[in-house]
Design goal:
With 396 residues, this protein is of the alpha/beta class. It is built from 14 helices and 14 strands. The strands form 3 sheets. It has an 8-stranded mixed beta sheet, sandwiched between helices. Bound molecules: pyridoxal-5'-phosphate.
């Protein structure tokens, strides 16, 4: 068959290939990017689904508006307002996961050959999705405080990108948190270079100890002109349930209008039943705060266990910055003491020892750092984390 030319730019994910190996009995997997299913608030979601069906069954089961179910749009606006961003319900659309928001951004903004700056490393599905639309991706370097803004400015000045895509809070895979100072700088750069910045924020609510700095969206009010150049993607996937497929996008009116038009052709609207359920869930007093408190505590404990074990068992063979939230530790093999220094080699040796993780290379759109790898503590209990890290040490 003669497939569309756009497929020439993408290949199946290396991670998918690795997942095939995970069926091996007894393997401890740090490879996933999923939240822990054991933490899903099944009772709360069941109650919300029942309320959705009894409150307005017609609306919950009928076709709906492409922009989203209004009670949910209002709840999501309030959810963001509580975190300091002034957002009205009509300034956001509901999307089928935040993944769809990224796809709509690709569809509306990227023509073949357009340049797009992403972090090196960044979310693999964004790399694939933007490439499908023909983007030429350029990686901006990061450190423990997120994207390095001096380097970002130099790349923006040189390449005049169509947009800049960032995961400022507890990045996937980086685990990094963009500092407050750098957040302001990013917004200033958006204005200075008149460039759209996309803030992808599915993890911001999963902080361990202290809340992260305000989102770019919340800060944009303090940087004149930046709100008109900012798209913000949110998601209930990591805090509530990815199976609901409820995400959203806040964007300037013109962009939101075009994205809505594209969404109409792609799925007409996000499941009304899922939206009505999510709206009921968010409206139930105390539900979401209780869920957030629970998942934060569990992930904080697992993250701490993993970081302590990595330090103790792998020593100076790895370097990493402990994450302040999210689901991931991003680490780098130092090669100290002649130990393995390549993430792919390490991943193969680790599978032999009965532990899996994802090597870092696929997360780079360009200039991969082959010494990196990503470990997720999200779905593994603390005992297994300790055992899994011992196996990692044995694979060095
Ligand atoms: C950075 C980032 N953005 C977006 C998504 C997509 O999430 P969803 O479509 O479930 O909202 C993910 C999921 O792993 C992610 O890590």
């Amino acid at each position: 068959m003669q497939f569309a030319d756009r497929l020439n730019n993408v290949e199946t994910s290396a991670i998918r290939e690795l997942f095939k190996l995970l069926g091996k009995p007894g393997i401890i997997s740090f490879a996933g990017g999923f939240p822990d299913a054991a933490l899903f608030d099944v009772d709360g979601i069941r109650e919300a689904a029942n309320s959705a069906l009894s409150a307005d069954p017609g609306a919950a089961l009928q076709y709906g508006a492409t922009e989203g179910y209004n009670p949910l749009r209002e709840q999501l606006a309030a959810f963001m307002q509580a975190k300091g961003a002034s957002v009205a319900a009509d300034q956001l659309i509901v999307t089928t996961g935040s993944q769809q928001a990224l796809d709509l951004l690709g569809k509306t903004m990227i023509s073949p050959g357009d340049k797009v700056i992403v972090e090196g490393p960044t979310f693999l599905a964004t790399i694939q999705c933007f490439r499908l639309y023909g983007a030429e991706l350029i990686s901006a370097p990061i450190d423990g405080d997120g994207v390095q803004t001096d380097a970002l400015e130099a790349l923006m000045a040189e390449h005049k990108p169509k947009l800049v895509y960032l995961i400022p809070t507890f990045g996937n895979p980086s685990g990094a948190t963009l500092s407050l100072e750098r957040r302001r700088r990013v917004l200033e750069l958006a204005v200075k270079y008149h460039t759209l910045v996309v803030e992808d924020d599915p993890y911001g609510d999963l902080y361990f100890d202290q809340a992260p700095p305000p989102s770019l969206l919340a800060l944009s009010e303090g940087v004149p002109g930046s709100r008109e150049l900012l798209a913000h993607c949110g998601s209930l996937s990591k805090v509530l349930s990815p199976g609901l497929r409820v995400g959203w996008m806040v964007a300037p009116p013109e962009l939101l209008g075009k994205a809505t038009m594209c969404k109409q052709f792609s799925d007409a609207h996000t499941s009304t039943f899922a939206q009505a359920t999510a709206a009921q869930y968010l409206a139930a007093a105390g539900r979401m705060p209780a869920t957030l408190a629970k998942v934060r505590a569990v992930y904080a404990d697992r993250a701490q266990t993993m970081c302590t074990a990595l330090r103790a068992d792998l020593g100076d063979a790895v370097s990493f910055v402990p994450p302040q939230g999210g689901l991931f530790v991003w680490a780098r093999l130092t090669g100290a003491g002649g130990k393995v220094a390549n993430g792919n080699d390490f991943a193969k040796r680790a599978i032999e020892q009965g532990v899996a993780f994802v090597p870092g290379t696929p997360f780079f759109a360009s200039q991969p750092d082959h010494a990196t790898f990503r470990v997720s503590f999200a779905t593994v209990g603390t005992d297994k984390i300790t055992e899994g890290v011992k196996r990692l040490a044995a694979a060095l």
